Every structure is written in C-alpha cells, then in structure tokens.
From TrEMBL:
Organism: Planococcus versutus
GO cellular component, one term: membrane
Cited CDD domains: SLC6sbd_u1
Protein name as it appears in the record: Transporter
Keywords tagged on the record: Membrane, Symport, Transmembrane, Transmembrane helix, Transport
Localisation per UniProt entry: Membrane
Assigned protein family: Belongs to the sodium:neurotransmitter symporter (SNF) (TC 2.A.22) family.
Transmembrane region(s): 12-30, 42-64, 85-109, 145-166, 178-204, 224-245, 257-282, 317-337, 357-380, 386-407, 428-449, 469-490
Amino acid sequence: MERSQWGTRAGFIMAAVGSAVGLGNIWRFPYVAFENGGGAFFIPYLFALLTAGIPILILEFTIGHKYRGSAPLSFFRMGGKKLEWLGWWAVFVSFVISVYYAVIIAWAMRYTIFSFNQAWGEDTQDFLFNEFLQLTVSPGQTGGIVWGVFIPLVLVWVITLGILLAGVKKGIELANRIFIPTLVVIFLAVVIRAVTLDGALVGLEAFFQPDFGAIMDPSVWVAAYGHIFFSLSVAFAIMITYSSYLPKKSDITNNAFITGFANSSFELLAGIGVFAALGFMASQQGVEVSEVATAGVGLAFVVFPQIINEFPGFNGLFGALFFLSLTLAGLTSLMSITETYVAGFSEKFGISRVKSVVFGGGAAALISILFATQGGLFFLDLADYFINQFGVAAIGLVEVVLIVWVFRKADTLKAHANEISDIQLGGWWKFSLGIITPIVLGYMMFGLLKLNILQEFETETGNYEGYSNMFTLSGGVAVAAAAIIFGILFSAAKWHKEQGEYDERN
Ligand code: PFF
C-alpha cells in the first residue's frame, strides 16, 4: 500500500503547528511563566527550547522521515522489539490524553454558545461546577451522564474522526490549513481587544516583571523543560507519525525550527492576551493581578467568563471568539494525537485507515464518555495529573537515552537530517540530546520520585477536595502503569507481514 503523503510543505508545517498549539499554549503557558519568574522565565524557557524542545523535534522529524512509520513501526525498524515498546508506550499515553482532552474541547464548544448571552450568569464558578458539570457525586463515582457535555463531546469526535477518515492530505492537512489561519486571526482579534482594555498594562507589567532570583531556583528550570515538552507535542508519538508522511525530499531541520518558533510566538501572544485581560479584571475589582491569575480549567471556565461579563461592549462576540479559539486550538491537537494510534494500529495489524479510525477512534470516544458523567471532572483531573507527571517527560527521557546511548543512532540520524536539510546540525544537537536533556529530565524524574506522591497530589489539585487516597493512588497508578503494560503487550504481538523488513541504508 502506498503511504499517505502531505500535499505541500506548508501543509505539513500547519499540521505540526496545529498539534503544538493547543490548550497548553493558551491556558498553561501564561501562568507557568508568571509563576516562574515572569520576564526572567524567558531565559530558562529559551534554553529549554533550544536544548530540548527543538533538538527532540528534529530527532522525531528525522525518525519519522527516515523510517516512514508511526512511532511503533519507526522504532521497530530502528531497533527491533527492544525499541518498539517505547513507541507503543507513547501511543498509549497519547490515547489516554486524547480521551480527556476531547472533553475539554467539548466544554469550550459549549461555552462558545454560552458566550452569546453570558448564560453562566454572575457566579461563574457555581455555574461551572454545579449547573454545567453537575458535579454532585464523590470522587470515583460516575453518577449520570451530563447531556450538556455529552452532546458537544459527540460532536468533537464526529469532527475529529471525520477528518481522520478523509486521510492525511484531504483530511488532516486540509483541516489544518483552514483551522490554523482562522485561529490566528480570531485569536489576534481577542488579544488586540484585550491589550486595549483599561488596566491591561497592569496585567502586562505583572506578566513581564522579571524576578531574576527565580533563575537560581532549579524548580523553575524543571517547569521550563516540562512545559516545553508538553507545548511542542514531543514524546507523544505525534511528531514521528506526522513526519512519516513527508515526501522523501523534505527539509527537516528548518521545518523543526519553524514549528518551534511558531509555537512559541503563539504562546507569547497568549501570555500577552491573558495577562492583559487579567489586568483589566483586577483593576475592575480593585485587587492585585496575582489574586486573579490562575491556569487551566479555572482560568478558562471560571475567570474568563467573569472577564467577559465585565467587558465594556460586544461581550458576547469576544466571549465567543475566545472560546472558539480554545476549540480550534484543541481540535487540531486532538487530531494529531488521535492519528498516533490510528496509524499505529493500522500498521501493526495491517488494517485499513477506515477500520483503524472506527475501532481505535471509536474506542477512545466510548471511553471518553466517562468524563461526560457527573463525576467526570474528578476522573479527568486524575488522569491528567498522573499522565503528565509520569508520562511525557518520562518517555522523553527514555527516548533520548535509548537512542543516543543504548542504540547509538545519533550520528546516523544526524547524517540523515543533514543530507536533506538546509541548516546543518552540529555538535550542539548531539550534546543537547545526549547530555543536557538526560541530566535535566533525570533530575526531574528523581525529584518526582522522591516527593511524597500523595502529598504533592493533594496540594496540586487542592481545588477539588475530598479525594480518597485509594481513588487517587490506585486510579492514577493504574492509568500510568496500564500505558507501559499495553506498550509491552502490543510489541509482543506479531507485525502484519508487510511491515517487517527495513533496509537501514534507505
Ligand atoms: N501541544 C499541545 C498543547 O499545548 O495543548 C499538547 C497536546 C495535548 C497535544 C493534547 C495533543 C493533545 F491531544
């Protein structure tokens, strides 16, 4: 079977940027930067981008391009079953992320509609938890289905799986070529409006105010590395899969730089917009910016609706544009993460894209219904916490150590990238991958293990109280462990025969 291909270079870049630009850019980056030194955070951030983010992006683009397969197949071709499991591990972590990420997009979709008449009323927090999510059960219980979430969730999956069914070029590429420019235009409109609000400057000052002392704090560096991983969608199996659809003649290194810098620009823009809006709200309420600054669900679905309530005009329009931005940014990321297992299953078992979308995507959609129940938010929070802490960064660490040190593939891959790319990779690349990244990630993992997991978990998610220890620990460990176990089980299964042989000289 002919391998699917991107139609144009711009199409591939849009798709890669579409994956990278997601909820993380809008609701995570601004607060992470603010909390970790403000203006001074740009130093560790840029360092992490240049020594981990972009080098790993180049690595993954090269792997996908050279071995022409989804993550499991590419790793299998590179190092046999001893490496294949790593691809599946990433694929299963991606699977888990996709099931709850879809639900957040569904909320954003619903909030786009709520925006028009600010259906959330005055008490936006009460509205979110009690009226919209109907969170009335204890952690671990599901309660009934929340139809207000379920219906947009079905829509999210219909759109995503519909696009994947249409294929790489006619589906993913086309969708990104429409969604990404649209996202940029509407998000710019929101940001321009935000920076012209009263009090915007106070917010921007709070955001950019450098605390140079923070640079001496190792946890700030860990935050920068952690964020870069998440933000660039590396170690998710995504970028390997996407680059496996590149034509033979493609620039890799340049594409990675473009993707990395585009993602960071979007993130910076989001930081400016979010903090301008927070500054506006803080001055309306006569409080400090730090009192209203937050991230995640609280920022998007509690604080932003409040900001929209206080807007001087066109409240409905700007609210809808903001939530539409979240929806579009989320959908393009969801497509990319779903493609990792659609491609993985179809290659491993030799089934068509259609079957793989129906079974793989269908399974994800079914499981995601769990998060559309009354207890859904508790499950979502749990899966997100454990997968992020023990998923992506851990995969990144194992990936660089195995490839550079155990399988010693760095030079071959570097030669491959240099042969087809404009920008030539030098010692910086291998040094970053082989030395800097493992040291920082190793330190990060060690620190995590040392921490009392439960204690940290309670403080991290203190906003939803009442987790029982059994629920958190058993649920979380089960999710994280299941990803590795599935990874090993899947690599034990036989490849559909066409995929077996690979000539290294390709
Ligand atoms: N880079 C994405 C983001 O910033 O949101 C990370 C991501 C998350 C990608 C979830 C894909 C995904 F499904």
